[in-house]
Amino acid sequence: MTENQSHRLSVAPMMDWTDRHCRVLHRLMTRRAMLYTEMVTAPAVVHGDRARLLGYSEVEHPVALQLGGSDPAELRAAVRLALPHGYDEINLNVGCPSDRVQSGCFGAVLMERPALVADCVAAMLEAADVPVTVKCRIGVDDQDPEVVLPDFLERVSAAGVRHFVIHARKAWLQGLSPKENREIPPLDYGLVLRMKAAFPHLTICINGGVTSLDQARGFLAAGLDGVMIGRAAYHDPGSVLIGADALWGDGPGLDAVAVVEAMMPYVAAHLAQGGRLHQITRHMLGLFHGRPGARGWRRVLSEGASRPGAGLELIAQALAEVTGQAVGAG
Ligand SMILES: Cc1cc2nc3c(=O)[nH]c(=O)nc-3n(C[C@H](O)[C@H](O)[C@H](O)COP(=O)(O)O)c2cc1C
């Protein structure tokens, strides 16, 4: 499969959300979409508990590791250390506006330093045996995106990156929380489309505010190589991910009830290793979004899953809220 095809749809990197349990869940709904990890900083990879930070299940492929950092040597080292884990892609975060990230000169603030980003990706490419990609914004603060975005793409692609994911809004580095920075700066989809026209040889994926597969289809039809969906995929995976494989011409996979049933062995294995139910079910709360029984499903799981000893029977009980089947509370 070419790089372009595997990215027709992807699930965005989201800290605290797209952990390995979440990705296993998402993979049951789409065999095709590229799944991104939460951002892991290069210093954490170099100095931290790599088994915990980088471990994942084989079923998650294709899966991309997102790194945060701005020191070329450290990013190169992080890529080398990540290689044995077998990720399908390594992505550099040039879009995340959080304070913590800014203070380390990671993320969106790097939009102001394209030459440094070029050095970073060149160093990563020296070590990588898989594609190195970049996720960026259209600009930050008072930058003019029409000027800085093409310049950024030019310089970073000259260093060897062929694939960009563009979150189609600026990050305002002062005064907005990370959450506000995903909502308040206006989206400019037109600019991202113009970048694809200006750089037809690059793989350009669009991100920001996409909430449906129909919207994704529209962007693909308009010539973009892929669409990355974050919040909608997390909160309403039944609409966004079940059925997503049709973008590759594949038939539908499991429905939401079958997804829950298919999660059971994974949950059982997690519990058997001493894990907590809540660590997995918190990602499943949106599974029946908009369907009868969705509220009961959420309530049963949110109230019960953190209790000591909560197990598979709680999932069965929550599922009964949706399917209407009588089950014992276990
Ligand atoms: C809870 C949360 C955590 C996020 N963490 C990251 C991150 O680690 N790296 C990153 O590049 N973007 C991160 N983002 C931004 C998303 O990847 C995405 O760019 C943004 O949510 C816009 O896409 P959407 O409108 O489809 O959600 C995060 C977003 C959310 C909601």
From TrEMBL:
Query: What family does the Swiss-Prot or TrEMBL record give for this protein?
Result: Belongs to the Dus family. DusA subfamily.
The chemistry this enzyme catalyses reads: 5,6-dihydrouridine(20a) in tRNA + NADP(+) = uridine(20a) in tRNA + NADPH + H(+); 5,6-dihydrouridine(20) in tRNA + NAD(+) = uridine(20) in tRNA + NADH + H(+); 5,6-dihydrouridine(20) in tRNA + NADP(+) = uridine(20) in tRNA + NADPH + H(+); 5,6-dihydrouridine(20a) in tRNA + NAD(+) = uridine(20a) in tRNA + NADH + H(+)
**What would be the name of the gene that encodes this protein?**
dusA
Cross-referenced InterPro entries = Aldolase_TIM, DUS-like_FMN-bd, DUS_fam, DusA, tRNA_hU_synthase_CS
Domain DUS-like FMN-binding stretches: 11-310
Essential cofactor(s): FMN
Q: Which SUPFAM superfamilies match?
A: FMN-linked oxidoreductases
> What is this protein's function?
Catalyzes the synthesis of 5,6-dihydrouridine (D), a modified base found in the D-loop of most tRNAs, via the reduction of the C5-C6 double bond in target uridines. Specifically modifies U20 and U20a in tRNAs.
Q: Where is this site: Interacts with tRNA?
A: 93, 179, 182, 295, 298
Q: Where is the active site?
A: 96
What NCBIfam families does its record include?
A: PRK11815.1, yjbN
Source species taxonomy = Bacteria, Pseudomonadati, Pseudomonadota, Alphaproteobacteria, Rhodobacterales
The name this protein carries in UniProt is tRNA-dihydrouridine(20/20a) synthase
Q: What is its EC number?
A: 1.3.1.91
- Pfam families assigned to the protein according to its UniProt record, in alphabetical order: Dus (PF01207)
Residue numbers binding FMN: 13-15, 66, 135, 167, 207-209, 230-231
| Signal sequence coordinates | none
**Which is one GO molecular function term here?**
flavin adenine dinucleotide binding
